[in-house]
Amino acid sequence: MSAEKEACNFCAWPAELQRLSFPAKIIELPDAFVAYLKDSGSIVLPDGCVPSFLCITYSESLCSATGHFANKEEDVSDSEEWAAAAEDEENSSAPPAFPALEADIRAAIEELGGSVFPKLNWTAPRDAAWISHNGTLRCHTPGDIFLLLKSSDFVNHDLTVALGGTAPAGGYRLVLKRFVDIAPHLEFRCFVAGRALVGISQRDPTIFHPQLPSLREEVLQRIKAFFTKSVLPRVTLSNFVFDVFLDAAKVFLVDINPFSDETDSLLFAWPELHDLATPPAALAAEQQELAPAPSADPASAPAPAVAESTDLATTAAAAA
What pTM was computed for the model? Predict the structure, then answer.
């Protein structure tokens, strides 16, 4: 599993695979910062680093460029109370400071257009979105990013459990992607077994999207074509899970994960996916003989199962 996990590491993706995703910058994380994230104590942000929502008048020039208050007169009372509470709690030790890392992050944010989506080698801090000022992972400052990373159990799992707690090849990295406001009904998780696309689920399993039924065939064909022509030739794994976002003109690769129960199966159950990944012997032989190639017609491949939410109830049906 460690080899499969390493292959899903965004930093290990080949350049042509990374280009299928949103523009991104990869920043090396110093050992001291990794130790800071692993520390399970209270959430204390690095010295002088504040989230953008603590600025009195938010603007790209003030918060995105600096991540600090311009001067004491611009501080708001809430921020003073927040800082005072943190000082009382941590009065026995000075807060950590990572000025070089902050500078790298600010430069990356500016290069990527002023707002970014953060993740580590594998995982984004989705479970900590509630703590941000807008309930999303949209970040404008180093403080926004540090607050999400420090608050996330998903990130802690990356650091302490993934690969048995050992660092990935090349070390831990912060991946900053240009923030894109993704339409939830057009983000999907796709399951691949034996180099065949066996299942597709909407990415958010909690919401019924009334527009999806009418888009079903279009979504299926676009994902199948993207998988066959763009993903399969660039991913060497036999089994994996990948997420995509479909906008009007292009399909974007969002993430790649292992084909295992450590990855959320969303509207499927893992036993169901394993059944889909084990076709009858005759079909298996046919698929092996006619293995997909980059030039293959995606319409000729066996149809994957499609799981979609209907009135918040899970259904699965074979695509026509």
Answer: 0.76
